[in-house]
Amino acid sequence: MKTSNALVLIVVLLYIDTSTEWPTHTVCKEDNLEIYYKSCDPQQDFAFSIDRCSDITTHTFNIRAAMVLRHSIKELYVKVDLIINGKTVLTYSEALCEPGHSKLIFCGKKKGEHLYYEGPVTLGIKEIPQGDYTILAKLTNEDHVTVACADFTVKNYLDYY
Length: 161
Description:
This protein is mostly beta strands. The protein has one helix at residues 2-19; strands spanning 25-29, 33-39, 47-50, 60-68, 76-84, 87-98, 101-102, 114-122, 131-141, 146-156. The strands form 2 sheets. A 7-stranded antiparallel beta sheet has the order 1-2-10-9-5-6-7, with no helix packed on it.
């Protein structure tokens, strides 16, 4: 009896480990703008929110983001892809943390520490592109290990005129 219970437990744990897919989270949903995200890191989800969708059009808006670091951050790099109809149409990458040059307050955080940011973010664009598209954002450290990864789905039907 104990052997069969142990076998069932092992099968359940293996199934959970191989079938884990993070849920899709709603960042914001208003009349003409919807933003969702899903972690694309198979080992970790994270929390992210914006006060109101309409704040995004002001170019500076408040966000909240939180996670527990699985890897230390001595150096941190971001790569962002804009994907429309399954094709990458734009790629942006930048070093966010480098020795002697840190753009973020959490540069230098160690594995296991909580990362929490609440405050303003400014987009370097005048308008959010209209339509339905995906933004893939990936943060990697100096060892090319994923620190965080997210697929954002944007549905923007705002009229800017």
